Amino acid sequence: MITSYNKLLKNQNKDFKYLIEYSNNDDVRKISWRIFDELMIHYDDEIVHFLCSWYCHMEVDDFEIFGYKCFYYDIDPMVCEMNKKITNNVINKDVVFDDIQINEGIIVNKFCETCYPVGKIFKGKFVLVGSDNPHLSCINQINSCQQIIDQNELTKIHYKTTIKGKHNYYMVIGCNQV
Amino acid sequence: MNKDIEIKPIPKTFSEYPRTQIFTSEKMCYFHDYAYLSGKKAWFDLDILIQKDISDEINQEHKKVKFIWNYWRDPRAHKANYGYLTCNINSSFVAWQDDVGYNLYENLIKVKEKAFFTYPSFDKYIHYQCYRKKQIDFWHNKIAYNYNIGGIFPEDNMPLEYRKEYNLCLFNTSHKAWAKKEETQIELDEAKGWAEILWKNYDNII
Fold first, then answer.
1. What is the CATH number of the domain that holds B72?
2. Does B177 lie at the interface with A, CB-CB under 8 angstroms?
3. Does residue B178 sit at the A interface (CB-CB below 8 Å)?
4. Structural domains of chain B, count
5. B128–A19: do the CB atoms touch at under 8 Å?
């Protein structure tokens, strides 16, 4: 069976194949697998919303195969066009600025360093990861789990940890529901 | 100075936010502050050279606000780097009419906390929030070239050259932190040769 990653590679224009390859780097894989493990431990929900999903081949091949119903939100039209080739429920919207209603399930953001804190926009159960990547596009560099908790106004914390990679990654699993 | 010229203070609507966020956000205020005036309107950055009469450009119909598209940039760059805040829009010369553009101002007011958190420059905000929603228009591809980069990618990418067929020459060095290492970053006041001569020719009393 062809993997979602290979399907993306096969479909992507040659000028942009390197983006797919980069989306499969060691750090991204490590974080995605860790999210899957911790989400299984801490939540029972079967609906997962991946905000700023980027290329979602890992989520498709890990979460969807295990029966999770996944929704993938990304502002990037090219990313969404490619993701539609491997899954349904692809939403080409800006999770920070566009009108998006999420009423059930778990909200995952693997790239807190690139955006406004999503906990200020959505209420519910979260899996949040942010890094100290110094790239200019990382407008919200994350330097601790506490920073994620404070920014996203999380009131109940199930788990938090630091993951070492090319950068330091901070993961928090928690809720901001009253 | 001509008695019809009025000097206005820089708008302070967004002064609660640091200048490093949505740099030149004051520009957005002009769509509000001058909405009551009917007719054609335009702004120009100070670091540009006007090479030709641009009255026809300003006097044309502007159903939406008109910005400069950076034709000197590889169009693949902003597609590939969409999530990295790469931006292909320039606001050095912008024109509109009547109350066109007021919606852009209103939208920024509604999302100002998130917008000032997210975008380091006005051009990036325009690219990711206004251009994405098809709320703006663009000038033709001979309106402006970039002194430090060139005219149209990839066939015309020699920096520092004079291109007589264009209306404007931009210097556009405010984005130098995001620029490629090999690009020159000469400001208008540092330019020599034809650019310096043209700039100094401006020195007359109105």
1. 3.90.550
2. yes
3. yes
4. 1
5. no
Mind listing the pLDDT tens digit for each residue in B94-107? 999 999 999 999 99
Q: Tokens 């000197």 — which residue?
A: B72
Indicate which of B17, B85, B153 best probes the interface with A, i.e. most A CBs within 10 Å of its own CB: B85
A125-131 β-sheet, strand order: A90-91, A69-73, A47-51, A106-109, A125-131, A168-175, A156-164
Q: Any CB–CB contact under 8 A between A96 and chain B? A: yes
Averaged over A147-155, what is the pLDDT? 98
Count, residues in chain B: 206
- What percent of chain B shows pLDDT beyond 70? 95
The pTM score is: 0.95
**Residues spanned by the domain of B98:** 26-200
State whether A135 and B177 contact (CB < 8 Å).
no
Q: Does A135 touch chain B (CB under 8 A)?
A: yes
Domains recognised in chain A with CATH numbers:
4-175 (3.40.50.150)
Lookup result for tokens 């901001």:
A176
Q: What is the DSSP letter of B131?
A: I
For residue B22, the distance in angstroms to the closest alpha carbon of chain A comes to: 12
Query: What ipTM does the predicted assembly reach?
Result: 0.96
Quote helix, strand, coil % in chain B, to nearest 5.
30, 15, 55
Which of A97, A114, A118 has the most B C-beta neighbours within 10 Å, making it the best mutation to test the interface with B? Answer: A97
Is residue B178 predicted with pLDDT exceeding 80?
A: no
